[in-house]
Amino acid sequence: MMLNVNGLSSGYGDVTVLEDITFCVESEIFTVLGANGAGKTTLLKTLAKLLPVKSGTVEWRGETITDMPPYELPSRGMAYVPQEGNVFPDLSVAENLSIGGLLDLPSREERLSEVYELFPRLVDRSEQLAGSLSGGEGQMLAVGRALMQRPEIILFDEPSAGLSPQFVDTLFQKILEIREKQNVTIVLAEQNAVKALEIADRVLVLSLGKIHLLEDARDFDKNRLMEAYHI
Ligand SMILES: Nc1ncnc2c1ncn2[C@@H]1O[C@H](COP(=O)(O)OP(=O)(O)OP(=O)(O)O)[C@@H](O)[C@H]1O
Ligand SMILES: [Mg+2]
Fold first, then answer.
1. Which among 18, 42, 86 is the best mutation to test ligand 1's pocket, defined by most ligand atoms within 8 Å of the CB?
2. Domain ranges of the chain
3. Any residues with Cβ below 6 Å from ligand 1, and which?
């Protein structure tokens, strides 16, 4: 068991958004679906320790991280790619990647060449400011930065947002490749249910901050997803 979430509630100040969420994530692609405002970002931020846990527990590889500060997570193998603001716009592509690689790990150059191999476009853009990249290039960079940590798990918040359909395909193939070749566990929050289901092992559907459905992707009944979107 990688990530174990038990009875989790969280939100913003006095507002509770997520209520009594229980699930575990194995070594897999675990997709979180749900309509706008369902609580996907809130869940990922809570797992990344950017929002306080109101009640319940979060365990990562057997260690309780419920009250751990966010800066402790990268050294424990957890990476988080937020929905927005996931690169430093005033730094170059290469500088963004080196910041992702600041952890005290050997083989920084090796990791950098792995990222450049996965996203050759970033090689051409390496001296360009991250703020001047296209949406898709910016997402590649955000994923690349996370990979520079050599993580065991990546929490992705809507990586496909704003991308062209063709680029969404490419990005999802890359995520699958990261999963298969580097054995990284993936938690993927998505609006794009159709694409996410193509690569998912299991699916959690949130509706108004609660679990609507949790099941294997291959048993997944799309009608149940529609129910969650129509509330
Ligand atoms: N900073 C905040 N303060 C108060 N409430 C917030 C804040 N951010 C989000 N919320 C509320 O929490 C609920 C869940 O929002 P969240 O961003 O987690 O949804 P989401 O599933 O990620 O939606 P989307 O698909 O639009 O990204 C919403 O009702 C939202 O209004
Ligand atoms: Mg969101």
1. 42
2. 3-230
3. 12, 15, 17, 34, 36-42, 191
The gap from C-alpha 177 to its chain's centroid, in whole angstroms, comes to 15
Higher pLDDT, 3 or 110: 3
Give the helix, strand, coil percentages of the chain, each rounded to 5: 40, 30, 30
pLDDT at 24: 97
Residue with tokens 């108004």: 208
Q: Which of 77, 76, 69, 65 is nearest to 4 (CA)?
A: 65
What ligand has the least distance to the C-alpha of 157? 2
What is the DSSP secondary structure assignment for residue 35, as one 8-state letter? S
Query: pLDDT band at residue 84, thresholds of 50, 70 and 90?
Result: confident
- To the question of pTM greater than 0.85 for the whole model, the response is yes
Give me the CATH code for the 3-230 domain, please. 3.40.50.300
